[in-house]
Amino acid sequence: MAECGECGPGYKTPLDAMKGPREKIIYLPCIYRNTGINKPDYLATVDVDPESPFYSQVIHRLPMPNVNDELHHSGWNTCSSSFGDVSKKRNRLILPSLISSRIYVVDVGTDMRAPRLYKAIEPVEVYWKCNLANPHTSHCLGNGEIMISSLGEPSGNGKGGFILLDGKTFEVKGNWEKGNKIPALGYDFWYQPRHNVLMSTEWGVPKYIADGFNPADLTKGRYGRYINVWDWTTHAFIQAIDLGEDSIPLEIRFLHNPDAAEGYVGCALSSAIHRFYKTEKGTWAAEKVIQVPNKKVEGWLLPEMPGLITDILISLDDRFLYFNNWIHGDLRQYDISNTRKPKLVGQVFLGGSIIRGGPVTVLEDPELQCPPEPFVIKGKKVAGGPQMIQLSLDGTRLYVTTSLYSGWDKQFYPDLIREGSVILQVNVDTVRGGLTVNEDFLVDFGKEPHGPALAHEMRYPGGDCTSDIWV
Questions:
Q1: pLDDT grade for 6, boundaries at 50, 70 and 90
Q2: From which residue to which does any coiled coil extend (predicted)?
């Protein structure tokens, strides 16, 4: 089995990727915006090799040159979409900044365990060449370019466009989208050339989500409700699938099999998972396949508390769907052998807002008989709830972080700001289904040199199931 790099970047198929080597290090951005610590965000390198003397420790920190960037989701310069092209290497990590609109390019190829800054793209480049701002999701394209979705435009209003970077020079080339019709909002995206489609989602208007969540903004159209469908060949926006006013569709994933014409999207506020699919007419549609019920509560922002699904992923064999409920505090595993009827097979509570003895009183809970206990590991009571998740290539380990976004962390989990976030590891039963916490693994970002940090989305050097797309 050829490892990543011997045949071009990544793996030939998703099932080949499952046979890849075990992850030994993880990269993830750590955020100081909104924490009261006036230091730059940084890229942390964490050792996750159980044979290493530095297991579950931060072994390197790469600070950015500026403060208040709000690093968020990262992506690669190239990935499995370019498998077979020996001229390409997965050696640069792309780090968009959600608030400052800077885009950093990090060299992880020279020294994998000690990344270094390669280039910084200043906001003015994005503003002038694309009329976009607030970059979010970065994906590598098969042609060598890099594509980054945006939440808005320079004035702080929403705009769901895409920034194109040259894969060699990392210069801003311009916009991917063409035509006058552009969605009002943006967030995540996934593309599938075999079905000539790109799907994008919507979070909210940047100037309104910057420092917290105001429920009144929902009825004013300031939060997302659509899956936006694009023609992959012409780059035209062709269809919007309405998921409802209170949905806020965030992470979107096609099944990994590039022939599959379906996938899932997680809706944060409605706490629903929708399956999207291609119809017989060639258009696209969606159906709700999972609904996490709200809990009636006292002592919280609203009288009904949603789960707040903020991240989802699909195992590389397209057998399991995983997602979190950041507010309720649980991580879930569903068997999706029947994609229209997901079956809950694993669940574990890792914190959240409904814990016993917390400030919230649960008055009515359709799912639980009693509140979960506070989650404590290695003597640390974990603040926040399960948020970003990443799965090992073989599907047997889930890594979980607890910070969503500094403005919302500050509002919903003030303890998280004071104590910092963590990385947890959850063992996965891939035969019968089931999730159990690895009690020996904890990365505590509450003990960082400059003070507690908010660690976010995770990447492995060899790629993973949320950054690799097979074409």
A1: low
A2: none
Please give the sequence-ordered ranges of beta strands (E in DSSP) within 213-294, or none if there are none. 226-231, 237-242, 249-254, 262-267, 272-278, 284-291
**Residue 103, token pair as written in the block:** 């885009």
The dihedral built from the CA positions of residue 116, 5, 19 and 22, taken in this order, carries a sign that is negative
Dist. CA 10–CA 17, nearest whole Å: 8
Name the pTM for this structure: 0.97
DSSP 194: G
Copy the structure tokens of residue 121: 């793209």
- The span from the first CA to the last CA of the chain, in angstroms, equals 20
- The CATH number corresponding to 14-455 among 3.40.50.300, 2.130.10.10, 3.20.20.70, 3.10.20.740 equals 2.130.10.10
The conformation of residue 301, written as its DSSP 8-state character, comes to S
Q: Are 223 and 183 in contact (CB under 8 A)?
A: no
Cβ contact 132:161 at 8 Å: yes
Q: Which two tokens stand for residue 202?
A: 């919507």
pLDDT for 402 beyond 90: yes
Residue 120 · residue 104 · CB < 8 Å: yes
